[in-house]
C-alpha cells in the first residue's frame, strides 16, 4: 500500500475524529511536509479534509470518485478487482483501454474504470453517453477456459449480475432486454458490451464492458436519447454511491462467473427468465441485412432468442436489435 493510501487509512480509522500530524508522521515515518503533500493530493482526488496546526487532520467526507482504493476497500472478491484496478479520470473507452492491457498480458480480473469516456462504445458501433462523475463506466478482463462459441453467454450472465445489483439498491422493477440492455420502465439504465479475442478453438481473452446511468440528471442527456434513457437519480429522485454499486456489481459478477465456469449456463436460464419481461411479447428484431417479427417464446441453453413468426415457425436468433410492437395474439 502506498504511503498516501496508508495515510488515508489512518484518517478513515479516525472515524470523524482529528488525527494528529505527530501520530501520522511517527506511524508512516515521514515528515510533516510530506504529510501535507499527500493531504493536498487527497484533496485533489475529492476527499474533504480539514487541517489544524494544533489538532492535525480530520476526514470530513470520502471522495465520490471511483478510485482504486475506494473500490478495493471492503471488496469481497477473490480475483475480480483485487490486485489490479486501472483508473482514468478521462479516457476514450474503458473497453479500448482494457483491450490494450489484455494484449500486454494483464491478468484475469483486471478492472478498468473511468470517470468519463470521450468515445464510450455500445453495440454495433453506437456510442455510450458518459458524463463525468455521473455513471459507472467499467470493463473487466477475463481469460475463460471456454470454447469461443460459449463466450456470448457471458453477456447474458453479466446482465443477470447487473440487474440483481441495481435491484439490491432500489425497489425499482429493473429488467433485462435481450441480449445486453438493462431497463427501467422500458428505458435503458445500463448496457453491456462484450468483445472477444479468440482463434477457432481458443479464447485469448474476453472484455466485458458495462455502462450504468447512476446519478445522471434528465437534462444532462442529449435530446436524441432523452426519451429512451434513464438513470437511478431520475427514477428515484435520490443520488447513489457509485462506489457501493460498483463494488456490489463486481462481487456479484465474480459469483456468477465462478458458477458459470463450474456449472455452465443452465443455472442462469431461470434467473434470466425471471428478470426479463420480453417473453411472450411481440417484437421485431433487426439483424444484419434482415428484420424478423414474431412472439418471443424463450431463450435456449445457448442463449439464442427463440422467435415464433405468424406461421408458427420458430427461429433462433443469436444477436440483434429488438423493438417492442403493438401486442396482439399471434399464436
What would a concise description of this structure say?
This protein is an alpha+beta fold.
CATH class membership of the largest domain: Alpha Beta
The CATH topology of the largest domain, please?
BirA Bifunctional Protein, domain 2
Helix content: 25-40%
Question: How do the strands of the widest beta sheet line up side by side?
Answer: 3-4-5-9-8-7-6
CATH architect. name of the largest domain:
2-Layer Sandwich
What does the average pLDDT come to? Answer: 90
Instruction: Give the ordered list of helices and strands.
Output: HHHEEHEHEEHEEEEHHHEEEEE
Compute the number of helices. 9
Cα distance spanning the termini: 62 Å
Q: In one word, what is the shape?
A: elongated
Q: How many domains make up the coordinates?
A: 3
Main pleated sheet: 7 strands, mixed
Strand content: 25-35%
Helix and strand composition category: alpha+beta
Uncertain regions: pLDDT < 50 for 5+ in a row? none
What's the CATH superfamily of the largest domain, by name?
A: Bira Bifunctional Protein, Domain 2
Q: What is the CA-based Rg, rounded? A: 22 Å
What's the total number of strands? 14
Structural account:
The chain is α+β, with helices and mostly antiparallel strands. Helices cover 31% and strands 26% of the residues. It has helices at residues 3-13, 21-28, 32-44, 68-72, 94-103, 153-169, 232-236, 242-263, 266-275; strands at residues 48-52, 56-61, 85-88, 111-114, 135-142, 174-177, 181-184, 187-198, 203-213, 282-287, 290-299, 305-308, 314-317, 321-324. Strands 3-4-5-9-8-7-6 form a 7-stranded mixed β-sheet, sandwiched between helices. A 5-stranded antiparallel β-sheet has the order 13-12-11-10-14, with no helix packed on it. Strands 1-2 form a two-stranded antiparallel sheet. A hairpin with a 2-residue loop joins strand 10 (282-287) and strand 11. Helix 1 packs across helix 3, helix 6 (153-169) runs antiparallel to helix 8 (242-263) and helix 6 (153-169) packs across helix 9. The relative contact order is 0.10. The model has no long low-confidence stretch (mean pLDDT 90).
